[in-house]
Design brief:
Blueprint (H helix, E strand, L loop, with lengths): L1 H8 L5 H4 L9 H13 L16
């Protein structure tokens, strides 16, 4: 019952999800790697680098 109540509060998924559009990652492992990179900030912006390390 709780799951049914939760489902009623969620928005409709985007068309890409409903239509089965392929994902940009071929496997769950690739998706996890991309997600971990996004969360940890892989490829930090130059402003996040320590002073004196520009261009390294």
């Amino acid at each position: 019952m709780a799951i049914g109540g939760l489902a009623r509060t969620l928005p409709e998924p985007p068309a890409e999800v409903r239509e089965g559009t392929p994902t940009p990652r071929a496997t769950w492992d690739e998706a996890a790697t991309g997600l971990a990179g996004a969360i940890t900030g892989r490829g930090r912006p130059p402003s996040a680098r320590p002073a004196g390390t520009a261009g390294r």
